[in-house]
Amino acid sequence: MAILALGSGFFGMQVIGILTFAAEYRFTPRFELLALGLVTACLLAAYIVKIIPKGIGSRSEMTKRIILSAFLVKAVHFLGLSGILSVRFSAISASYYLLSAIMVLGVTYFGFRFVQQSNAKQVTERQRLINAAIMGAVLTLLHYTSTNTFYSNMALPPVVGDGLWVISTAVFVALIVSLLLVFAANLALVDLHALETETGLLQQVKASENRFRTLAYTDQLTGVPNRHWFFAHLREVLDSADGNLETIGVVLLDFDDFKSINELIGQDGGDQFLKKIVERLKTVLPESITLARLSGDEFIFAVANAKKANLEQLCQNILLVAEEPVHIGERSVSSGVSLGISCQEVRELNEENLIKQADLALFMAKSAGKESYRFFSPELLDSSIRKQEITSALQQALVNGEFSVHYQPQIELVSGRVIGFEALLRWNSTLGAVPPSEFIPVAEECGAIHSIGEWVLREACQQLKAWRKEGRPDVHVSVNVSAKQFLDPKFAEKVSSILIATDVPAGCVEIEITESVMIDLDTAAGLVEELQDIGVKLAIDDFGTGYSSLNAVKNIQIDTLKIDKSLVDEVLGSDRSMAILATIIELGKNLGADVVVEGLETLEQVNLMKQYEIIGQGYYFSRPLPADKAVRVWDKYLEQPDGLFHAPILY
């Protein structure tokens, strides 16, 4: 329809121009030529509609298009002129024909440029009107030169004597113009309706696309963007990066105790917690930074041109707002967060590695005690690799017999008598020397601590049984138990089975736990009661280093209070530290518990502690030794029962 409208309009313009020239002359129209002229005009319209969207292109391509279009324009004009007036090729005026050809080529070229410029955004309405006026003037001159190409050397038809022919010609011309206008108007209305319909459909499609995009890129719980948006956004930032973008930083954020919150207030309560905490986090993030939810309680955001100092300040602000309680119903809950940070230069950026590095840094932040942040570094990667190696080696350590138990004596300071030993785990690993402070946390994380802990307890009980068979004095053996091992509901049952299997009295075995086990006092109290029903003694290790010390001893009956080495190191030369230590010793005695001071390394420390009539343990007496060497130290104390013995170096 658009081609027909454009073609008939162009053809009508040509015919109207000819009729205007021939209105006073008598002529007989030849409709077959006029119809052929209309078809040619439609072909010209189809060609123009096809090539205009493609642009003008190269010069050679533009020349071909101009020549073909000019040829079709001349053909339409000649067919229209031949259909109305009789013309002879022999009467063609060379000068007018050349001028007409030049004008056709010019108007064609100008027409292409006019359309191209009119579609450009930078062309004003005034410029468009000027272009249209120039186009109209050139077309008028084209009609004049084209008509004179034939009639400058040829006699015109006879002039109509009366005015009836002129009037009928004018009416005919007006009728054609009116019909063309009506036809064009109908086509315009049809096209306008189609355009409006198409525009409405496009708007609906676009709105639907926007809705789908919003749904696809938005986390439905918190309302923040989701992981799909984040990765698309990161890719978009990198693709559009200019010279001003030098680095990209990624921060991964994970809540430390979200599982406990869900257990405490339910999943719906956990969802409400996330909504509120996310709104709080958004208040400390700059407008240029968008928080996105990766999954569960894990969130992420990217920082352009990240600087370490700025990232540290940002993480510190997040830690501060996260520790404030959130009110859910009648409860107040809180959860610390851990953050992992990775930063790379844009020219060396690898998106996958960037996220992996941030995830590794987050893992190390959690391993370091949670509620902290860590930056990725090559050293951190080495630490992670080391951790994986330890994890792998631990799986076969028991089977390969790589573990051993060393014993450190506990001395009654007043009498110099050995009253017990602490059993300490050592690992002769294929990786080399791996201290307990390094492999025990890994064993807790990978779950190997349960089997390893049971092995240590069984080994210590078997050694105690062997000493008893040798007729040695009664002593007890203390075994350290991790929080995960202690909180096992079947732990008391496992201890009882080992005691029965080794035929060791329960009163000769002491289980050492740290203060961190006492955080959940209700659970801990029940487990302590089960152990005490068996007859096993209970000791709190590293007393005074945690925030729950007094709360623990207030609510749970203990047999031994072990004071951490860090408190002993500060007493010499510090009256304040000595007063604190003396208070703790007095507290333990008032509770009816034995008091063991760890970390005694000098004679001065021993003499200072001796006045409090407590039990000492430390390198002054002996370092932890294998059972055969520990017995040799024990024998030295048995030989001198009336005083303390500084053990010789037997190792």
Summarize the structure.
The chain is α/β, with parallel strands linked by helices and 651 residues long.
Described by strand count, sense and barrel closure, the largest sheet is: 8 strands, mixed, barrel
Mean pLDDT, as a whole number?
79
Q: In what range is the share of β-strand residues?
A: 5-15%
Task: Tell me, briefly, the overall form.
Answer: rod-shaped
Estimate the helix proportion, in percent: 55-70%
Structural class: alpha/beta
End-to-end distance, in Å?
105 Å
The gyration radius over C-alpha positions equals 49 Å
Low-pLDDT parts are: none
Number of helices: 21
What order do the strands of the largest sheet run in, or round the barrel if closed?
Answer: 8-9-11-12-13-14-15-16
Number of strands: 16
The quaternary organization reads as single chain
What order do the helices and strands come in, and which of them pair?
Elements: H1 2-22, H2 31-51, H3 59-84, H4 94-119, H5 125-151, H6 163-217, H7 227-239, E1 247-255, H8 258-284, E2 292-295, E3 298-304, H9 308-322, E4 326-328, E5 331-333, E6 337-345, H10 351-367, E7 373-375, H11 378-397, E8 403-412, E9 417-429, E10 432-433, H12 436-446, H13 449-469, E11 476-480, H14 483-486, H15 491-502, E12 509-514, H16 521-534, E13 537-543, H17 549-555, E14 560-563, H18 565-568, H19 575-590, E15 594-598, H20 603-610, E16 615-617, H21 627-639
Parallel strand pairs: 6-7, 9-11, 11-12, 12-13, 13-14, 14-15, 15-16
Antiparallel strand pairs: 1-3, 1-6, 2-3, 4-5, 8-9, 8-16, 9-10
Helix pairs in contact: 1-2, 1-3, 1-6, 2-3, 3-4, 4-5, 8-9, 11-12, 13-15, 15-16
